Amino acid sequence: MIFEFREANPSDTEVIWDILQEAILRRKNDGSNQWQDGYPNRDILGADIENDAGYVLTEGEKVIGYCAVLVNDEPEYTNIVGKWLSHGDFLVVHRIVVAGDYAGKGLARQILFEVENLALAKNIFSIKVDTNFDNIAMIKTFEKLGYVYCGEVTFRGSPRRAYEKIVLQI
């Protein structure tokens, strides 16, 4: 498979929304409370795209994955119970989702590899992420890719596992 990772554009909105809805249902069916409170929603997705923070993973012309990538922009990360590895510029990755018929094929890892390349292109060497304590698949993905557990952050009243990876140009 040949993938492309690019900024999302408004014409991608409906397919991204469908992928997000699939992911929200998968989390619910897994017994998770993650994304069961009206987040993420269309307004968040629209803001991602409008602010050039939305990115899609495509196979050919087909959008098969999505994430938001922000630069130095996650206020909740200043309230970590624990300690980040670094204190300089960083990318934040939120809302990593893969289309249902592509789930389980390592594409979340592919998205994170692409984010590492994006970080290096921007001369940023830290990537920070978080996930629910019950999102075992994402926790394993972070750990396999060398993300280090740094502590807990809280979003909408819910504690989440926080990770950081220092990326270095080889």
Automatic annotation (TrEMBL):
Per the record, the coiled-coil ranges are none
Which is an annotated Pfam family here?
A: Acetyltransf_1
Checking PROSITE patterns in the record gives: GNAT
> What GO molecular function terms would the record report?
acyltransferase activity, transferring groups other than amino-acyl groups
InterPro entries linked: Acyl_CoA_acyltransferase (IPR016181), GNAT_dom (IPR000182)
Residue intervals of the N-acetyltransferase domain: 3-170
What is the protein name stated in its UniProt record? L-amino acid N-acyltransferase YncA
Q: Which keywords describe this protein according to UniProt? A: Acyltransferase, Transferase
Organism classification, top ranks? Answer: Bacteria, Pseudomonadati, Bacteroidota, Sphingobacteriia, Sphingobacteriales
Q: Does the keyword Mitochondrion apply?
A: no
